[in-house]
Structure formats: structure tokens, C-alpha cells
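Onboarding guide, step 5: your first structure request.
Type a short instruction followed by the sequence, for example:

Predict the 3D structure of this protein.
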Amino acid sequence: MRKEAQDGKFAVLAPRGHEVSNNIRNALVEEFGFEPEVAGRMRSAEKRGKYGGHRVTFVIIYDPTKLPGVREDYRSLRSLRSGVDFAGRVETDGSVHLVDRRSFREAA
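The system replies with C-alpha cells like these:
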């Protein structure tokens, strides 16, 4: 299971979807206008990787009630054309960069 340090860095990642971190929750509220309760119900799946030559944690943010019966792991969620609300990355300093994918779902 993932453990989040106070500075927003991750010690261990959960293999399946789990609650979003405080940094992601704050980004959903501040950048995308989510109510705190709604942001708190979102889930994330994560994968470590590199972006621009440095280490990051790639994230997929979704509402589990909209994806019944779907495996809640990063690889499975990444392959979906709809149902994923946000995708992006968390830098090692805890900063969050998300792309809103909800419009892709509406266009599909």
C-alpha cells in the first residue's frame, strides 16, 4: 500500500487504485473546481516513470462508481478511451500536473 510522506513524496505505491493524495485532492479543488467531498471520493492509479529525464509518478484519476467491473490498475485504466477523468504526473517535489480527460469521454 502507498504511504505518503508529509512532503507529498511516496514511499511505496499501491498496485491497485486507492484514495487520491492530498496534493492531488488540492489540485482537483483549486484547479478544476471540485467540491472537497467529491475530490475525496476520486481514486488514483499510479506508476513510476521518467518525464523529461527526471523521475515522476504518473497518475490516472477516476471515479470508481463510473467504472464498475473494470480493473483498477494503471495499465488497465490507461487503455480506456472513456471513464478516466484526469491523467498526469506528480513531480518528486509533490507538484501535480493533470490533464482533464472528461471532454474526451463526451466526444467518444
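Each response can be followed by summary notes, for example: Strands lie at 3-4, 10-12, 18-19, 43-51, 54-62, 84-91, 96-100.
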